Amino acid sequence: MSDSAVDLSAVPAHVACVMDGNGRWAARRGLPRTAGHEAGLDALFDTVDGALEIGVQWLTVYAFSTENWTRPRDEVRFLLDFNRSILAARRDEMHERGVRLRFIGGRDRRLARSLLAEMDAAAELTAANERLTLTVAFNYGGRAELTEAVRRIVASGMRPEEVTEQTIRANLATADMPDPDVVIRTSGEHRLSNFLLWQVAYSEMVFLDVLWPDFGRAHLFEAVAEYQRRERRFGGLDR
Ligand code: IPE
Ligand code: IPE
Ligand code: MG
Asked: I need a surface site. Which of 25, 100, 116, 237 has the fewest CB within 10 A?
């Protein structure tokens, strides 16, 4: 599909992706799971290019969940090292394209200081870019994010009756971002797996059977076109 199927006057401001199916992609080729993660990288950058092409302003991708630590140690280590090397290798390219890079998720001791330093350097380098904000959810879980928000609110000494939805929103890692208009999940699974639980209250869900390494801008356009055919109601009646 080309971008001609997309109505450029109604492009979603925020697209979120659960990049799933890397392991199955590799298994089908008789390759180790890690080869699937490597192949998934091209899919991500093609998706970023597609988002830039149609003018998506916020793209948030799920790269490593708080539950992914339960995977075999070698796979976890690969994913951590891999993300560090991607950042070092691709951050200048993202910067040249006008992409602002951000990271959401726990900065706990399981993440090497060198990885955190790469994340900070990439975020700092690209902080003033305005074309597209690419937020990478890494060591991210929606429940952990909400728990952290509650802790901060309690620690602030706020009175219970002062706490509003706005208070909670302001204490999430996504405080200054609009909620996702559309969430795309690849690989045929129909679940959120702890991604952006608060933020997806009224997001449109698009589930595609394609495995993430086979995903690219054409699938992004297909998902955006599907989103544009939906009628969003937000609890009200037809507008
Ligand atoms: C998504 O692909 C990448 C991560 C969760 C890090 P998977 O690794 O979950 O691949 P499948 O779902 O096993 O095919
Ligand atoms: C969700 O995929 C997490 C990421 C894409 C990073 P998983 O493969 O971990 O989710 P489940 O285990 O199928 O729910
Ligand atoms: Mg998976």
From this structure: 237
